[in-house]
Specification:
alpha/beta, 13 helices, 8 strands, about 35% helix, globular
Length: about 325
C-alpha cells in the first residue's frame, strides 16, 4: 500500500479489522470461525431509566413523576424495571425519595422491581420499603471504587457480603454490577483478568448474576470481545449480563458483539435505558434502537414473556 499511513493500512487489512471487530464477518455475510454466532432468538433488555437514567439529572424530578414513569413502563411489556436506589441523599440527592417511589408504584404481578443497595443500611431500608430484589455495585477499578463508593474493592466486597448474607436469610435475590470493565476514567485500560477476578468474587458471595458495565462508554467491539473471552473462561455464562453506555457511539457495536459471542447466544441479558444520551447513563437510545437490528428480516417481532414485544426486559 505504498506510503499510506500505518493507521490506514491497518483499517484496510481485513484480518486486523476482524480481530478488532468480531461482528464484521456477520455484516459481510461471511461467518467464519467459531467466534461468530447467530443472534439469539430471545434477548432480555433491562430497563434502568428510573434509576440510572434519572440519577444524574440536575433538576429534581418530582416523586409523582417518577412513579408515573415506572407505572407507564410497567404497561409496555417489560418484565423487570429497576425502580430506584437506596443510597444516601448526601451522595445522590435525586434518589432521596426512594422509599416513596417504591411504595407508590403500582407493582404488576409479571414485573419485578429491583433496587440498588450499596450497603447494609441501604438494604435494610429497601426491605422495609417493600423491596423483593436488590443489586450491589462494585468496580474493576480500584480508583473508581474509592471515588464512587468511598472504599477499596476489597472493602466493598466485605460490605456486599453483609448485604448478601442478610438477603439470603430473607429470601431476596441479589445481582451484582461491575463498573469500568472496559476502561476507567482515572486508570485508563482495565485488564480483563481484573474484571474476571471481581466477577468471580461477587458470584462466590452469592450474586445470582453479574452485569459487566462499560461505564465510560470507551469500549469497542474489540475490547468487548477480549473482556468476554477472559471472563467466560472462568465464569458460568448464564450468570452474565452486559451494560453498555453510548458515550462515543459504540454501544450498539458492543451489544452486537456480546450477542454473537458463543457464551451469550442462549438468551443472555442485555441492560438498557430509555434515558437521554449522556455520560453516566445506561444505553442512551430507545430500546427499539437495540431491537430493530436484531429483528428477523420479515420484521416479525420476537416473542417472550410479558407480551408480544421484540425483546423483553429481564433483570
Amino acid at each position: 500500500m505504498g506510503n499510506a499511513p500505518i493507521a490506514v493500512k491497518h483499517c484496510l487489512n481485513y484480518g486486523a479489522l476482524v480481530g478488532d471487530s468480531p461482528w464484521l464477518p456477520w455484516l459481510l455475510q461471511e461467518k467464519k470461525g467459531p467466534d461468530i454466532h447467530k443472534f439469539p432468538d430471545f434477548v432480555k433488555i433491562v430497563e434502568v431509566g428510573p434509576r440510572d437514567g434519572l440519577q444524574n439529572e440536575k433538576e429534581m424530578v418530582p416523586t409523582e413523576v417518577k412513579i408515573q414513569l415506572i407505572d407507564m413502563l410497567s404497561q409496555t411489556g417489560l418484565s423487570v424495571i429497576e425502580a430506584t436506589s437506596f443510597v444516601s441523599s448526601k451522595w445522590v440527592a435525586q434518589m432521596a425519595d426512594h422509599t416513596e417511589v417504591l411504595r407508590g408504584i403500582n407493582k404488576l404481578p409479571h414485573v419485578r422491581y429491583p433496587v440498588l443497595t450499596p450497603n447494609l443500611q441501604g438494604f435494610q431500608a429497601a426491605v422495609e420499603a417493600g423491596a423483593s430484589e436488590v443489586a450491589v455495585f462494585g468496580s474493576a477499578s480500584e480508583t473508581f471504587s474509592k471515588r464512587n463508593i468511598n472504599c477499596s474493592i476489597e472493602e466493598s466486597m466485605r460490605r456486599f457480603e453483609q448485604v448478601i448474607t442478610m438477603a439470603k436469610q430473607a429470601g431476596i435475590p441479589v445481582r451484582g454490577y461491575v463498573s469500568c470493565t472496559l476502561g476507567c476514567p482515572y486508570e485508563g485500560d482495565i485488564q480483563p483478568a481484573q474484571v474476571t477476578k471481581v466477577v468471580k468474587r461477587l458470584l462466590e458471595l452469592g450474586c445470582y448474576e453479574v452485569s459487566l458495565g462499560d461505564t465510560t462508554g470507551a469500549g469497542t467491539a474489540g475490547s468487548m470481545a477480549a473482556m468476554l473471552r477472559a471472563v467466560t473462561t472462568e465464569v458460568p455464562v448464564h450468570a452474565l449480563a452486559v451494560h453498555c453506555h453510548d458515550t462515543y457511539g459504540q454501544a450498539l457495536a458492543n451489544i452486537l458483539t456480546a450477542l454473537q459471542w458463543p457464551a451469550l447466544d442462549k438468551g443472555q441479558e442485555l441492560e438498557g435505558s430509555a434515558g437521554p444520551l449522556g455520560v453516566g447513563l445506561d444505553w442512551g437510545g430507545s430500546n427499539s434502537s437495540i431491537a430493530e437490528p436484531l429483528n428477523p428480516c420479515d420484521n416479525a417481532p420476537l416473542k417472550g414473556q410479558g407480551g408480544n414485544y421484540p425483546f423483553i426486559a429481564h433483570y
